[in-house]
Amino acid sequence: PFLTGIRELLNCGIQSADALRMMSTRLSEPKQKLLATRLWEDLRQGRTLSETFRRQPKVFSESVVNLVEAGEATGNLGNVLTRIVESMEESKAIRGKLMAALSYPCFLIIVAVGLVFLFLFNLLPRIEGLLASLGGNLPTSTKILIAVSDGMLKYGWIGGIGAALGIGALVSWRKTEAGRPKFDALILRLPGVGRFIRDTQVLQFTQTLTLLLENGIIMIQALVMAERSLFNLAMRSSFSEARVKVIEGVSLSSAFKSTGYFEDMALDVFTVGEDTGDVVPALRQMSRQYSEMIDKFVRLFLGVISTGVLLGVFAMVGMIAFGIISAVFQLSSSLSGG
Fold it and tell me: CA-CA distance, 26 to 33, in Å (whole number)?
């Protein structure tokens, strides 16, 4: 909403300083009002809009700052902000689809875990005590569930502490200078998640590169700035190596192919555009292709997740139901025998 407001005011012919001054007085949301005030104060001191954005790293990413800087350099800031907002809205739409699609599997997992705990820690001890008082023996399936229950009660806290320590160590390692690139390279190899990250990063790169080239930034400088828009350091390093190849005279399509992150079909489309000299339209078409691929992949991936979670919940509930029914039949036999 903040960048949308700046964009609309700039498109009306208002200067960036005046736009921020107006927003600092008219915005009702406290955080956005404070942000607009701080940015306006920086502009009053003679800083450019990109410099003021760079002084707020928690709000504006490096890629946004670079794009704003390019828009200022080419005198096309309004168009740049429009494209930034569109890119953010597209990313927000993807996140919205993920959250909406994951809500049902998460609900099933919560219900399943609740049922498991209810049975293991409430119903099962009562059945076990009743059978023990009647001198009956528990069926094998119920004994297995009891063993799992006892194990969770006795050693569950150890597993919880171990998992917390493991996650903490992984997060700490990721924050180190040596660990971050290795972690980013490792996560790209994960099934499903790795492909999603790769494709979204390629989409971010091609969209940024298209916007920079459209606004008159030369190719090498545009590649440098587009690389900075990537949060995955392993991919950023690969694209940096590709840029060196372009400087050495290798075609852009061949350099892209050397990264190993581009789909062959998308590269074919881009190669045709590069051969005809229409690089920007080819990049735009590549961005559309990746946007469609991401959308299809998200639907497929979430469908598989939902099905897997549903089957897992059914299996868990079935095991619990079988354990309860077996215990009830055993209890009935003990009462009949008594």
Answer: 8
